[in-house]
Amino acid sequence: MVIKSDIEIAREATMLPIAKIGERIDIPSDQLMNYGQHKAKISYDFIKSLDGKPDGKLILVTAITPTPAGEGKTTTTVGLGDGLNRIGKKATICIREPSLGPCFGMKGGAAGGGYAQVVPMEDINLHFTGDFHAIGIAHNLLSAMIDNHIYWGNKLGIDTRRVTWRRVVDMNDRSLRQIASSLGGIANGFTREDGFDITVASEIMAIFCLALNLKDLERRIGDIVVAYTRDRQPICARDLKASPAMTVLLKDALMPNLVQTLENNPAFIHGGPFANIAHGCNSVTATTTALKLADYVVTEAGFGADLGAEKFFDIKCRKAWLEPAAVVLVATIRALKMHGGVAKDDLTTENVKAVVEGCTNLARHVQNLKKFGVPVVVAINQFSADTDAEVEAVTAAVENLGARAILASHWADGGAGTEELAKYVVTLCEGESHFAPIYPDEMPLFQKIETIATEIYRASEVTADSKVRNQLKEWEKAGYGHFPICMAKTQYSFSTDPALKGAPDNHSINIREVRLSAGAGFIVAIAGDIMTMPGLPRVPSAEAIHLDEDGLIQGLF
Q1: Which CA distances in Å does 417 have to 13, 60, 102, 348, 407?
Q2: pLDDT at 537
Q3: What positions carry a catalytic annotation?
Q4: pTM, rounded to two decimals
């Protein structure tokens, strides 16, 4: 049997004109800004016209702790959206835009897989509608204005040793992590230490995904703290008069993107912060717009539930007043075996014992999700090597937790493979949800960090030196104490050690640094060895991506 690649499946899809997709959720064609035949942005006038309409049900798709074996969170999000439409529900999906860095690095794209994909796959995984380029340019405009202000006399008294705003590029490039800028003499400015982050780690990306509208976007950009004076007074983007021009660069980008699934169902793809170094959710504008247009909206949060789901609940839902109705926790037998100690090369061999041991990770996530008051269902993303005994082991483990596990074959069967899951999700949505964030706004900042670390990561203690603790106290005095926490840590473990699989507990979480994201409205707490600019692997995916003799893209996944 020949198994087609994701790009081959996507290329064979029969796509409808984007206006036809808009019609399915009552968007008039004249309210779409077309980017070719199969992509469009939704106008602000139309979004504003939706004010007062009731919201549909919001469903979060999250996953167990990621492994090299794969979990399939985006694939499940797409498959569930198709499944809901197959059973007669008016549903759409909301996911993040892929970053070019992972596409050309190791992880690959983020348009789903198999027969549960969003299309046009190549466009979505590459330049799409240019949103990330706009975000990167807006970010770097601010960088240029900071150095320009210093060059022309530094009226604000910026201490060049305390410029906190780095530059960005949407590519994995370790050589840019730490640089010296303004070399070459006095004509080029004042030499200082600088560096680059990947665009998805930019505070502009976080602001873009949390802004309610253009006015809110400009206000948030103005709030960004970019540097400090010698007496440690903050300098904001509005002090440099940068926020209006930056908003102009983002004017079109903030409009949500509309595309379609392989089954011609509507899909919103907009924004894309990482979840290990940012808050990991698609834009608020896309989610809130979709909720006005569909009865069920399926969205995802990055990486495992300890990072993505926690931030979705504690940051995005808190900031946008969202009320999730249900959570789908994705797991694969393969990944559970890895959490149970099986090497990657041995994953196709039946090993019920390893599955049971790996279910400790699954159980931890189920228990954590229930703490937010939202009903949970486990979706077992099916692989051909899964055995009945292994699936039964997972089903039994989940039943012992007071939840249900459902086998889903959307990768191979599309929406038909998620019909049972879709029906059960509808049942959950019709029941009660008592959603609440895990900590209140008024809780002190360090106590918020401790709450996440002990309640979600199951750490026995949280450590931080006096510099970190004092910084948090200073921010509380400055009026930032109500901000939520955005934890930056490895996605591969509940602990800060990526080698610790399963469900480690009684470990220590050390907060080595904290950063203020005043525009985004949260505090970033950095735990363990985490980088805001990834590097390429020894053999990057870029080596396999090419145009064939017919001019078609090959090697993209």
Answers
A1: 18, 19, 28, 22, 8
A2: 87
A3: 73, 75, 96, 107, 275, 303, 383, 411
A4: 0.94
